[in-house]
Every structure is written in structure tokens, then in C-alpha cells.
């Protein structure tokens, strides 16, 4: 009788092990596919979302939607259609003050509408010439000819009286370029202006640059403050110097930002901004804030030497358009009619372009 050694085969255990192994394999395969699918969808999601936004859905009862406009055109300095009624109104306002020499210019950069009154006539620039000086200096910054933080030494030659505080500092004090450029506009500092003029090459060099920019009436004959009024410009030149920046014709985007930021620091808002506010039915001791509440911004620079007044700026309108405007008046010393006339011409401008604007909602 023979005896079998070893364990008998476990046929019963084989029956349940194989299905279990198959289930485990399927689970592993499912997890793997889930991970792969999730990774792919994560990578494709931004593109799919972009495609959903860019591609209009077309189906029953739907209308194709045009793609969104990519940005607003910057416009150009190109007068096309004269606002003859506004030009005539300026002429009438000036005619009522026969002993005053008056000039004005407006251009809506987006569509070329313009108004003018003796716009190319050279008049004493006073501190309004600081705007084209700022443009020239920022061109040099763009070209790498000067640095934003470059120290500018105060010398006896550039110390100027009148507006500003830098003249009170000891000769030899060094101011960074950005501070001189800002104070030149913010408080109309004359010593800061002379520092910038000297740094960009002096009067002869800067006059050549003005001509190259298409500013034929803009001539620097004297250091600031130039109380005699020998430095000249015109309303057309002042408006053009601002438009060249805002339309992108001059300066890089970064330098253009510097220009706008510096122009926005100007403290004097009693001429162009106050006049614009008056024209839309407003009155405030703080015109800039009141205008901003109505969707209007004015970035301006004034000039005042008693015998001559000027103001020029960029006006951002409530409809998103932008305009450049400049006004200049020469008359008797400290005659209030000069400043009143600038405000009246600015008011006529805003009545034409904006009309009566609703008062801001009380807060």
C-alpha cells in the first residue's frame, strides 16, 4: 500500500484568488488613468477656458459675438475738424479784452476735433516751458544719457529765485535727477529746472531739441525764473509737447509713466482745471478732486510771471477720450483779467466737449 507524501492541492483557494487579483489590477489601472487624465486636464484647462472666451458659441437662437477690442488706440496729434463755434467763442472772449494778447489751442486726440485762437503766436512762456523741458529730459533718460537717480550738483549758475525750495540749499548740494524733475513741475522749482536744463546740455542744446520735436515757437533764452518774459512758446507747442508723450510718438512706456506721474503732482489747479470744472457747472476750492468725482482728470502745468500767464494740460474726458489744451495770455502786471480769461476759455472748452455734468453723489 503506497502512501502519498506532501499536501494535497488547494483547488478551492484558487477559485477565489484569481477574481481578487483581477479586481486589484483594475483598481491600480483606474487610479493610474485618473492621475494621468487629471494632469492632462490641468494643463489644458487655461487653453480651453481661453478658447471658450475667444470663440463665440453659435447655436439655435444665438448671435455670434465679435471679439473684444484689444485696447484703446492712443490717438495722434492730427487736427482734422475744427470746432468753429468754440474757436469763435474764444475769439469773442479775447476781443472783449483788447489790450491782452491771447492764444489758445485744443485737440481731441481720438478724433482730431480742434479749436484755435492765435495758436502759433509766440508768447512769454513763464513756467509753462517746463513741460517741454521735462519731455527732453525724459528722452535722454530713455536713451541712457542720464540715470533716474543720477545726482545733479547745485551750482551758483543754476540757482534761481522765485518758486521752489532748492535755492535755499547750500551750493554743492546734490539732488537726484528724479527729484529735480519732479520739483520742477510739482512746485515749479526754478533751481530744479535750471539743474535739468544744464544736465541735458544747456540752452543752445535744448533749443535744438525743441526744434527737432516740432516746437518752433519754444525758445529758451534765459535761466528760470525769466521774469522779463524772454523765453517763449505757443499754445500749439505746449499742446504738442504733451500729445507727443500721450500718443506714444515719444518716450518709452516707462518714461511715459514718469511723465504722467510727474505732471500729476502739479499743485496749481486754479486755471485750466478750475475753468474746466466751471464749464460743467461745478465750483470747488479743490477742482482736481471735484473733476475726478465726475470722471475727468486734468494733468497740467501753469506759468505765471505777472505779465504773462499760461496753462496747458492733458484732459481725460468721461467718455474715455483724451484731449490736449493750452491757453496763454500776456497783459498788464498781475491783471486779474488774464487769469479770468484763461478760466473762461477753459470753461467754453468743457461746455463744448462735455456739457453739463451731473454732480457727484454725496458720500
3D architecture notes:
- With 363 residues, the protein is α+β, with helices and mostly antiparallel strands.
- It has a single domain, classed as DD-peptidase/beta-lactamase superfamily (Beta-lactamase), CATH 3.40.710.
- Helices cover 43% and strands 14% of the residues.
- The chain has helices at 11-54, 84-95, 130-142, 177-186, 190-199, 203-212, 235-246, 253-263, 272-279, 287-293, 336-353, and strands at 81-82, 101-108, 113-117, 123-124, 151-153, 174-176, 232-233, 297-304, 308-316, 322-330.
- The strands form three sheets. A six-stranded mixed sheet has the order 1-3-2-10-9-8, with helices on both faces. Strands 4-7 form a two-stranded antiparallel ribbon.
- A hairpin with a 3-residue loop joins strand 8 and strand 9.
- The radius of gyration is 34 Å and the shape is globular.
- The termini are far apart.
- Mean pLDDT is 86; it is low at 1-14 and 44-71.
Characterize the largest beta sheet: strand count, sense, and whether it forms a barrel: 6 strands, mixed
Rg from alpha-carbon coordinates: 34 Å
Main sheet strand line-up:
1-3-2-10-9-8
Give the amount of beta strand, in percent. 5-15%
CATH architecture: 3-Layer(aba) Sandwich
Strand tally, please?
10
Number of helices: 11
- Give the CATH topology: Beta-lactamase
Helix content: 40-55%
Overall mean pLDDT stands at: 86
Q: Poorly predicted ranges (pLDDT <50, ≥5 residues)?
A: 1-14, 44-71
Basic shape = globular
How many separate domains? Answer: 1
SSE topology string: HEHEEEHEEHHHEHHHHEEEH
**Given the helix and strand composition, which structural class is it?**
alpha+beta
CA(first)-CA(last) distance: 112 Å
CATH class: Alpha Beta
| CATH homologous superfamily grouping | DD-peptidase/beta-lactamase superfamily
